[in-house]
Specification:
Number of helices: 21
Strand order of the largest sheet: 9-15-14-13-12-10-11
Distance between the termini: 50 Å
Structural class: alpha/beta
Largest sheet: 7 strands, mixed
Length: about 750
C-alpha cells in the first residue's frame, strides 16, 4: 500500500491512514533520478521528501560535483546502441543471454572485464577494459585542471564521454551507457569514486558539518582542552606527510598543541552488528593508518619478562584517544553516552591531552549539539565518515574541533592524497579501508548501508542515511581476502539487505549477490555465508531458492515481522500484512524445511489494543521462531510515531513483553529439541568461557553448540551428536573432524 509506483494517470495516488492521508509518488527529476515523496495529512498538509538516490541526499554545500573528484573506470566500446543495450542486458542478468536459458561463457568472477575482452573495440580490451582514474570536470573549482589530467586517457575516452559519465552521478558498481564523439557507444563501469577530505570546505554554508578552529575555554578549569598529535603512517610505521593541505590558522596551536603523538586508543561499542563491523573499520584506521595500539592489547606484561616467582600483572594504561561508537535504537541512548563521556571530560578539564570521539548513530542524530553539551569532545563522526577518520584526527591534533554528519556518497577508500591515489590504485591494489577483525574464524562484510523505508517508529534512516550498495566485485574482493586469511564464515550485513542493488545502475538484487558469491568463493575456503537483515516487503522467492540450494549459504532466515495485526503494520508503514508474511514463511518451510527462522517483534506500539496484540501471539504460534528478538516500543527522536498522542502505558507494554518472551522461549526450546540425537555439522569458534574444557560453535542454522574438545579445533568443521537441548543452545559429543 505504501510502496512507490510509477504514476501513469494522476499525479497522486492516495492511500488511507488513520493518521491522516499518506501517499507515495514517484517523481522524475531533470537527470532522471527517482525520489519518493510522502504526504502526511491531518491538520497541516505537510509534504516530506525522502530521497532514495545517494546523490539526491547530499546537501547543497556538499553536492556530488563538489565531493567527487574522480572515478576509477573500465569501459566496453561498441559500434551500435543496439549492441550496447544487448551487452548491458547480459551484464545485468549475470551473464544470462536474453530469450534463452544459456549463460554467457565466463572464465572469472569479473563478467564486465570478460565482456570487454571479448567484445570491446578499444585497445583496453586486453586489460579487461581498464581505463583508470578519470577526473570529474563538472566541479567548478577544478574544471580546467580535470580536463588537463584527463588528457592522459583522451585516446581511450573523450572529455564528452567523461562529462556524460559524471553527469549521471555514478558511484562504485554503476554501469552507464554513453555515446562517444565518433558515434560509437561506451558502457562505462565505475569501480570506485575518490573523495578527498577538506574539512574547511566540507563545513561550508548549506551543510551540517562544523569545524571550530579556536576552542572555547572549559567550564571550571578555565583551560582550553588539548589533544594529542596524530601522524599518518605507512605499513612499516614510517610517517606520511599530511595530506589535507590546510593551513593551521589556530593561533594557539604553538602553545597548547605542542604535545606528544597519540599512542593508545580505547573503543567502546554498543548496538547492532553494523556497529560492531563499523568498530572493526575504525580500529583498522587507528592502527593501520595512524599506528595506534589498543590499550586492551598492551595491558598485560609479557610473562617472559617476569621473574619465576612473579605473577602476571596488568599495566595501568590510559588512552590517548577515546572513541564511543554509539547506538540510538533503545530509550535513553543519549544519556548513556553523556554518562560515558563524563569521566574523560573531567580528565581534559584537568589538562590531560586526550582526543574524545563520539561516533555512530547518536553522533549522527545529535550532531553539533554534542559539542555544545560537551565542549571537551573533539570529533563527532557520522558512520559515513569512517573512511576519513585518519585525516580528521590529524586536524584534531592541530587544534580543530569537528562535527562531520552531513550526507556522503559511499567510497571503498577515499583517504589520502591524489598522489597516493595515483601511485597505489590499480586493479590488484588493496584500496579498501583497513579492517581489524574481531574474530579469526567468522567475519562481518557490509554489502549495503542505510535504509529508505522510513518506518514510523524507526530512527535508522535518519542516522544511517539512504541505501548505498557496494559493488559485487568489491564485496567478492573482501571475501577472497578473508578466505586467503583462513576465515570460514562471513555474515553479509545490511539494515535492509533485500534492498541490495536497487540503488545501482543497472539494478541488481540480493539473490544475484548470493549466487555470485557462492559461485566465485573457492571451495575449501569460506564454507558458510550468512546474512542479516531481511525485509518481508522485498523478500523474494529467489532468495529462498538460494538458501535452499546453494552449498555455502546457510539455512537461516532472519525475517523481522514487528507486529501481527494488519492495522498496526499499516501504522508502522511496514508494507505487508499478516497473510503476506505467512505466505513467505510457508514457502520457506516448503523449500527449506530444515532452515531456522528468526525474527524481531515490537509490543506496545502507539494505539495497539489487546486484540491487536493478540494477533502478534497468533503469528508467533503459526511460525514457531527459532529465535525472536523482542522489544517494547519506545519513542525515538525524529520519528513520526513518537509524536502521536495514543502512546501505550509503559506498564501495559511491559506486561505484553513478558507474554511475548514467555511464548518465544517455549518455541525456541521446542525448536532446539528437534536436534536431539542427531549428528550436526558445527563450525568451531571459541572456547566456552564458563567451562575451559569445552569449545563453542554453531550449526548451519545458527544454534550454539557446546562440547568437550581442544581449542585447536577453532576454525574447523566437525560433526557433533546432540545430547541435550536448551532454549538457546545445545550440548553434544564430538564425533568426527572433517
Amino acid at each position: 500500500a505504501f510502496q512507490a509506483k510509477p504514476i501513469t494517470t494522476s499525479p497522486r495516488v492516495p492511500a488511507s491512514s488513520s493518521r491522516g492521508r499518506l501517499s507515495s509518488t514517484l517523481v522524475e527529476d531533470e537527470d532522471v533520478k527517482a525520489r519518493t515523496v510522502w504526504e502526511i495529512g491531518n491538520d497541516n498538509k505537510e509534504r516530506k521528501w525522502f530521497p532514495i538516490h545517494p546523490a539526491d541526499a547530499l546537501s547543497e554545500g556538499n553536492n556530488y560535483n563538489t565531493l567527487v573528484r574522480s572515478a576509477y573506470v573500465r569501459h566496453i566500446k561498441l559500434a551500435t546502441e543496439d549492441l550496447a543495450n544487448l551487452v548491458m542486458r547480459i551484464y545485468s542478468k549475470g551473464g544470462g543471454l536474453p530469450g534463452s536459458n544459456e549463460t554467457y561463457d565466463r572464465s572469472d568472477a569479473d563478467l564486465f572485464s570478460r565482456l570487454a575482452a571479448d567484445l570491446s573495440l578499444c585497445s583496453t580490451k586486453e586489460d579487461g577494459g581498464e581505463v583508470g582514474w578519470v577526473e570529474n570536470p563538472l566541479g567548478l573549482d577544478r574544471c580546467q585542471e580535470a580536463r588537463e589530467r584527463n588528457e592522459v586517457v583522451s585516446g581511450l575516452m573523450s572529455n564528452k564521454v567523461i562529462e556524460a559519465l559524471f553527469a549521471q552521478r555514478v558511484k562504485g558498481g554503476d554501469v552507464v551507457k554513453v555515446k562517444g564523439d565518433d558515434g560509437a557507444w561506451h558502457l562505462v563501469r565505475c569501480d570506485d569514486i575518490f573523495i578527498q577530505v577538506d574539512p574547511s570546505s566540507m563545513a561550508s554554508a548549506g551543510t551540517k558539518n562544523v569545524i571550530n578552529r579556536t576552542k572555547r575555554k572549559l567550564k571550571g578549569s578555565g583551560k582550553v582542552s588539548t589533544s594529542p598529535a596524530f601522524v599518518r603512517r605507512d605499513a612499516d610505521g614510517a610517517s606520511i606527510p599530511l595530506n589535507i593541505g590546510l593551513e593551521d590558522d589556530n593561533t594557539q596551536s604553538k602553545t597548547i598543541y605542542s604535545v606528544p603523538d597519540a599512542k593508545h586508543y580505547k573503543i567502546v561499542t554498543t548496538g547492532c552488528q553494523m556497529n560492531v563491523a563499523d568498530s572493526e573499520r575504525i580500529m583498522g584506521v587507528l592502527e593501520g593508518e595512524l599506528g595506534l595500539k589498543s590499550i586492551e592489547s598492551e595491558r598485560k606484561v609479557d610473562p617472559s619478562l617476569l621473574a619465576a616467582n612473579q605473577k602476571s600483572q596488568k599495566v595501568k594504561l590510559e588512552p590517548d584517544v577515546l572513541l564511543l561508537n554509539t547506538c540510538t535504537i533503545r530509550d535513553h541512548a543519549e544519556q548513556k553516552v553523556y554518562d560515558a563521556i563524563g569521566p574523560y571530560a573531567a580528565m581534559k578539564r584537568n589538562g590531560r591531552p586526550l582526543a574524545i570521539v563520539v561516533a555512530g548513530c547518536v553522533a549522527q542524530q545529535e550532531g553539533d549539539a554534542l559539542l555544545r553539551r560537551f565542549p571537551e569532545i573533539d570529533l563527532v563522526l557520522g558512520p559515513q565518515y569512517i573512511p576519513w577518520l585518519g585525516e580528521l584526527l590529524i586536524e584534531v591534533g592541530k587544534g580543530a574541533q569537528l562535527c562531520m554528519t552531513d550526507a556522503m556518497v559511499w567510497s571503498e577508500k577515499s583517504g589520502g592524497s591524489i598522489q597516493e591515489r595515483d601511485s597505489t590504485r590499480d586493479k590488484d591494489a588493496d584500496w579498501q579501508v583497513p579492517i581489524k577483525r574481531g574474530h579469526s574464524t567468522r567475519a562481518w562484510v557490509n554489502v549495503i548501508y542505510g535504509c529508505n523505508e522510513h518506518c514510523t517508529y524507526c530512527v535508522v534512516p535518519g542516522v544511517r542515511g539512504v541505501e548505498q550498495s557496494r559493488s559485487m566485485e568489491a564485496i567478492l574482493q573482501e571475501c577472497l581476502k578473508l578466505a586467503e586469511a583462513g576465515y570460514k564464515e562471513v555474515t553479509l550485513l545490511g539494515q535492509n539487505i533485500d534492498a541490495y542493488g536497487r540503488d545501482m545502475t543497472p539494478r541488481r538484487n540480493f539473490a544475484d549477490l548470493l549466487y555470485y558469491l557462492n559461485d566465485n568463493i573457492p571451495d575449501g575456503t569460506i564454507s558458510r555465508i550468512r546474512y542479516v537483515t531481511s525485509h518481508p516487503r522485498y523478500f523474494s522467492d529467489r532468495v529462498i531458492d538460494a538458501v535452499a540450494n546453494l552449498d555455502k549459504v546457510c539455512e537461516c532466515f532472519h525475517m523481522p515481522f514487528q507486529a501481527g495485526d494488519d492495522k498496526v503494520l499499516k501504522e508502522m508503514r511496514r508494507g505487508y500484512t499478516f497473510d503476506s508474511y505467512m505466505n513467505i514463511i510457508r514457502k520457506i518451510k516448503e523449500k527449506a524445511p530444515d532452515a531456522s527462522i528468526c525474527g524481531d517483534v515490537i509490543v506496545g506500539f502507539p494505539g495497539e489494543t489487546e486484540e491487536e496484540f493478540q494477533r502478534t501471539l497468533d503469528l508467533m504460534n503459526e511460525v514457531h521462531f527459532d529465535n525472536l528478538n523482542t522489544f517494547a516500543y519506545s519513542p525515538r527522536p525524529n520519528t513520526e510515531a513518537a509524536l502521536w498522542k495514543n502512546q501505550v502505558p509503559p506498564e501495559v507494554s511491559a506486561e505484553r513483553l513478558q507474554r511475548v518472551q514467555k511464548l518465544a522461549n517455549e518455541h525456541a526450546l521446542e525448536r532446539s529439541q528437534r536436534y536431539l540425537g542427531k549428528i550436526v555439522e558445527v563450525l568451531v569458534e571459541d572456547r566456552n568461557p564458563k567451562n575451559r574444557e569445552e569449545v563453542m560453535g554453531r550449526t548451519r542454522q545458527g544454534r550454539q553448540v557446546f562440547f568437550k574438545a581442544d581449542i585447536g579445533l577453532a576454525g574447523k568443521l566437525v560433526d557433533v551428536k546432540i545430547t541435550e537441548a536448551g532454549t538457546w543452545s545445545l550440548l553434544g559429543e564430538l564425533q568426527e573432524v572433517k
